[in-house]
Amino acid sequence: MLGLEKKDFRLLMIVVVLTMLAPFILNPFPAESALGETFNAGYPDLMQRFVIFGIFAIGFNILFGLTGYLSFGHAAFLGVGSYAAIWMMKLVTLNVIPAIIMGVIFAGIFALAVGYISLRRSGIYFSILTLAFAQMSYALAYSVLTPITGGETGLQIKATDSPLLSNLEPGEIGRANLFGMDMRTSFELGVGDWLFTFNSGYYIAAVFMLISFYIAIRIFRSPFGTMLRAVKSNQTRMYYTGLNARPYTLAAFVISGMYAGLAGGLLVAMDTQAGPERMFWTASGEVVLMTILGGVGTLIGPVLGAGAIKYMENILSKINKDILHEWFAILPDGIEDFLVTIIYPFVGKGWHLTLGLIFMAVVIFLPGGLVEGGQRIARLFGRKKTKGDGEEATQSTPAE
Amino acid sequence: MSKTDLTRRGLLKTGAVAGAGVALPTIFTAQSAAAFTNEPTGGSVTLGFNVPQTGPYADEGADELRAYELAVEHLNGGGDGGMMNTFSSKALQGNGILGKKVEYVTGDTQTKADAARASAKSMIEKDGAIMITGGSSSGVAVAVQALCQEAGVIFMAGLTHSNDTTGKDRKANGFRHFFNSYMSGAALAPVLAGAYGTDRKAYHLTADYNWGYTTEEAVKSSTEAMGWETVAAVKTPLTQTDFSSYIAPVLQSGADTLVLNHYGGNMVNSLTNAVQFGLRDKQVNGKDFQIIVPLYSRLMAKGAGANVAGIFGSTNWHWSLQDEGSKAFVKSFGTKYGFPPSQAAHTTYVQALLYADAVERAGSFNPCAVVEALEGFEFDGMGNGPTLYRADDHQCFKDVLVVKGKENPDSEFDLLEIVEVTPVEQVTYAPDHPQMGGAEATLGSCNPGA
Amino acid sequence: MDNSRSNITATAGILGAIVAFFAVVVLLFGVEATILQTLDGLSKGSAYALIALGLTLIFGTLGVVNFAHGALFMIGAFCAVTLSQLLKLSRTVIDETKTDFLGNPAQIQVPYMNDWFGAETGAAIIDWAVPLAILFSIPIMVLVGIVMERGLIKHFYKRPHADQILVTFGLAIVLQEIIKAFYGANPIPTPAPAAFSGSFDFGAMLGFDPNVIIYPYWRIIYFAFGALLIGGVFAFLQFTTFGMVVRAGMADRETVQLLGINIDRRFTLMFGLAAAVAGLAGVMYTPINSPNYHMGMDFLVLSFVVVVVGGMGSLPGAVLAGFLLGVLEAFASMGEVLEVLPGLNQIIIFLVAIIILLTRPRGLMGRKGVMED
C-alpha cells in the first residue's frame, strides 16, 4: 500500500494513529490533578515541538543512520531555514506554506554548499568540517550579521512589518496562518476531568511529519537507500565496483539538510521567532543525541529520541520544590522532606543531571537505543513478531 | 482573520463542561467564556516565573526565584510583608491579588530565546499563567516580551539592561523596572569626569551582540560629551573566555582608560585578565590607568574577586541602601535566606509587587486594564526613590546608583560601595531618543488575547 | 614511524609558512605588536595544546571519542578551588563592634591556618593554594581517570563511536552538574599567589619603550609549565619502556597483545595520565580565569578542533595545532584586523580548521586510517 511493504505500511499507520491521537495520549491525567499539572504534555507548544524535532531527527538519521557520516553541524540548516521562513513572512506573506518552502529551499542550498566541501573528507574530519561551518554561522549570526539576523534578540514579526500579500491594518501585528487559519487556533474537548486540546498548528506540523516519515521509509527501502548503506558498510568496495559514492552521500546530505530546513520553517510557522542559538553546537549535538538515544538507523527511533529529550526539557525543568511537597503531602513530614530532598536535585534546575544519567543508562543498557527497549518489552510479552521496524534495528549495527 | 484562543485550564473550573464522560466541543470558547487570555476563574491566580536555572546565569536565576517566592508569600499575607509596608500605593491587602490566592509555576529559560519562549508558552498554554516575569538577559527579555504581546498576557521583565527592551523592541504588554544602557552611560559620565578628569583616552572592549552595542554607544556618547576621546572600540565574541589578546594591545594604543562593555562571565574574565596584566599599576599620559565596568552585578563581582577593587560601574540597586523600602526588603529576604538579595532579586520582587498592585488598582486581571494602571504610574518606597513607569515606552525612571568595587570588603557580600545616587532627571531621555529606536519605535496597542 | 619522510617535508612546509606569516605580520603591525601577540598566542596555545594532548592520548591509545575530556579539565580546576577552600576553613568569631547586613553582630571568619601557623604564615599558605593544588590534584586526577576507564570507558572500546559520544557526553553533563550542585554556577575567584601578580616588561628588556610589551607573570608561568608538561609526556612515551609499549600498542594493538604484554593495564594508566594532564591544565588555568562548572564544555569543541587539525593519532600534531590556533587567534583579535575584517575573531579557529582540512586531508600530521571511517 502506498508503495510500501506490509510491515512498513503497518508502521506508518501506527505513527499516523499515534500522531493524530497525540492530544489524548499525551494528556493521560486529569487536568486539575497533581500528576496532570506536572506530567501532561498535551499542550500545543510541546506537541508541536515533538513533531518538528521529530522531522529534524528523521532527516538527520537519513544521513547518519544510512551513510554513517556524522554531521556535527546540522543545526545550521535548521537555523537557515528559520531565518528564510521568517523573512518570507516579514516581507511577502503571512501564509506559512511559502515560508516553509523558502526554509526548505534555503537550507537545501546551504546544505549543498556545506556538503560539497565537507564530503571531501570522511570520519571525524567530516564531522569537524560540518561543526566548523555551523559554528561560523552561529557566531556571525550572533554578531556581525545582526542587521539580517537580529543578532542576540533574533527576529520577530513586528507591528511595523507589512508583508506584500497581506492586508494588515496599520499597527496590527501579523500572525502566521494557513490560508486564513491561525496557527494558534485550538479546539478543546472536555471529558469528565480530562481536557484535551486539538491545535491547528500541531496538526499542520503533524501532517508534515507524516509526509517526512513516509518519504524517509521510501528512501530507506529504495535502491538509493541501499546504495547509502553500501557507503556505510564498505566504501572502498564501492569504488572497486566502479561506483562513486560522493553523489549519493551528497544527495543524502542535502536531503537531510532540507529536512532540517523544514523543521526550521515549521518552528517559525508555529512560533514566529528565529534566533541564532538555534545554530549553536549544542543544538547540533542535541539532534545527534536524539538519534542515538532513539536508535540509529531505525525508522521510528529518532522520533522517539526527539520526543524523550524535548519532554524532559519542558516537563522536568518545571518541577520545583513546591510541586514535590504537594506530591508527597500525604506522607508524614519526615518522609516527605526526605523524599523531596532526594528527588529535588534531579528536577527543576537539576534537569540536566537527569538528562545526562538517562543518556548513560540508555547507551549502557540499551545499545540499540529506545527502540531496543521497546523490542525487549515486546519480547517480554511473548509477541514473536516485534514492531515493524524491529528487524531493521537489529540488523543495523550502528555507525562505526 | 479567525478568532483564536490559548488553552485555559480555568475553563474546567466553571464546571460548564465537566459533564460525566460527555464530550463537549468548545470551539473558540473565548468569545463566551472569557474576556482575555487565561482569565482566572477559580479562587487562585497563576503567575509564571521564567528564570535561568541552567547555564552561566543559574545563580542569578536562583536569586530571582527566591525573590519571587518571597513576593508570593507577602502577597498572600505571609511573612513580614516586606516592601508592601513601604510601598506608596496601599492597594495590596495581603489577601492575594483581588482576593485570589497567588500560585506560581516556574520554568527554565536556559538564557536562550527559544527555550525561554517554549517555557513561557507552556506556562500560558498549560498552566494558565496570567503574567510572565523574570529572565537574566536582554535576548530572552525581547523574545518573551514579543511572545506575551502575541498571546495577550503581561510581561514584567527581569534583569535586562539593553536599550532595545524598552527601545526599538518595546511592546504594549511588556514592562521594565530595571535600568538600561543609556542610563548607565548618563549616570557614570559625570562621576567619571569628577574622579578621572575630562581629558581621558578610552579604549572600549565590547561584547559582540545587541546589549554590547547599546552599552558601548551609550557610554561612548556620554563620555565623549564630557570631553573624553575614544581611541578604539574592539568587539569580542560572546563565547570568548580568555581576553588576553584583546587586552595586550591596550597599552600600546596610548589609551589611559579601559571600558569593559561586558556582562556575566565575559565581565568576570575580561576584568580578571585586565587586572592580571597589571594595567592599573601603569601610568599613561601622566595619569593612572583606569578600568570601568558600565554594568555591575554583585554576583558577578563576586566571581571576579579582589579584581573589582576601586573599579567604577553602575547598578540598579544595592542592598546597602538605607531607605525604608530597601531596608524592609533586605530584612525579609535576609531573614528568610540568610544572605542579602542581589539586584536581580530586587528588580524581580518589585516587578511582582507592581503587577499585583496594578491589578488591584485596575480591579481586573485584564491585561489592557493592567497596562492602563501601570502607564504613568508614580510610586515610591521600593528602594529607588520616587519612580515613574513612563507611559511612552513602559520603562521605569528612577535614580541610578554609581558604585565602586570595595577595597577592603568586610564580608563576601560587601563588594560594592555606593559612590553616588544619580538623580532621575539626569538619566531621563526622550521616548524617541535615537538610541531607543528613534521615532519608529512604537508600543503598538495592548493585546488582551482571546 | 613509516611516514617519517612525509613528516619531514610537512615540517619544512610548515616552517616556511610560519616565516612568511611573521614577515607579513611584522610589516603590517610593527615589531612590538607582533612580539606581544605572538607571546599571547603561545600562552593561549599552551592551554589548547595541553587539553588536545590529553584528548589525543585517549584517541590514539584507546580509540575512544571522549566528550568528557573537557569535564576532566574542569575537575582539575575545581581541585584547585577545593584546596583553596579547604585551606580557608575557618572558625567563626563574633565581633560585637561590627554589624552584618541585618544589623546583627558580625561574624568574622578566622582560618584555622592562621591559628596553627600564625597570621602571616597562614595567609601565605592560603595565598599559595593554586601551586599547592598541583600536588593535590595529580593523585586525584589519575584516580578519576582510572576509575572512569575501568568503570565505564572499558566497556565501550568495541562499541561504535556514536555510543562513545553519547555515553561520555552524558558523563560530562553528570560531572558538571555535580560540581554545580556543590559550587553553584557562578565563577569562583582563585587567584595566583600575590608574588606572581603584575606583568613582566619584555619591552624594557629587549630595548623597546617600557610598558609596551608587557605580559602577566602567571601566563608566562603557564606557558613554561605547559611546555614542560608536554615535554615530559613526550619524553615519557619516547624514552621509557612503558612508553614504548604504549606507542607500539597505539600502532598495532593486537600484535602487542600476542606478544604476551598486558596492554589493557597500560592503557588504563594512559587514561589516568591523560586525565592528569587535563587536570593540571585546569589547575594552572584557575588564576587566568575564575573557574565555573561549564568551563569544560566551553573548551570541548575547541579542543576537538585542535586535535583534528593536528591530525588524528598524532601527538606532535595536536601540540603544533594548539600553538598554531592560539597564535592565529591572538592576531585575529587585534583591532586593526577587525576594522578590515569585522567578525574575523568570531570565526578564525573554524576558518583555519576548514582551510587546513581541505588542503591537508588528515590535518597537519594525521596518520592514514585513524578515525576516517
From TrEMBL, chain B:
Top-rank lineage group of the source organism: Bacteria
Leucine-binding protein domain boundaries: 45-406
Protein name: Substrate-binding protein
Ranges where the record places region Disordered: 430-450
Gene3D superfamilies: 3.40.50.2300
InterPro entries: BCAA_transport (IPR051010), Leu-bd (IPR028081), Peripla_BP_I (IPR028082), TAT_signal (IPR006311)
Keywords: Amino-acid transport, Signal, Transport
Pfam families on file: Peripla_BP_6 (PF13458)
Annotated transmembrane regions: none
CDD domains: PBP1_SBP-like
UniProt keyword annotation of Iron present: no
KW Signal (keyword) present: yes
Family: Belongs to the leucine-binding protein family.
Automatic annotation (TrEMBL), chain C:
CDD domains for this protein: TM_PBP1_LivH_like (cd06582)
Localization in the cell: Cell membrane
Membrane spanning residue stretches: 12-35, 47-65, 70-87, 128-153, 220-246, 267-288, 300-328, 340-358
Highest taxon in the source lineage: Bacteria
InterPro entries membership: ABC_transp_permease, BCAA_transport_permease
Membrane topology value: Multi-pass membrane protein
Key words, A-Z: Amino-acid transport, Cell membrane, Membrane, Transmembrane, Transmembrane helix, Transport
PANTHER family (UniProt xref): ABC TRANSPORTER ATP-BINDING PROTEIN (PTHR11795:SF442), BRANCHED-CHAIN AMINO ACID TRANSPORT SYSTEM PERMEASE PROTEIN LIVH (PTHR11795)
Family to which this protein belongs: Belongs to the binding-protein-dependent transport system permease family. LivHM subfamily.
Protein name: Branched-chain amino acid ABC transporter permease
Species this chain originates from: Roseovarius rhodophyticola
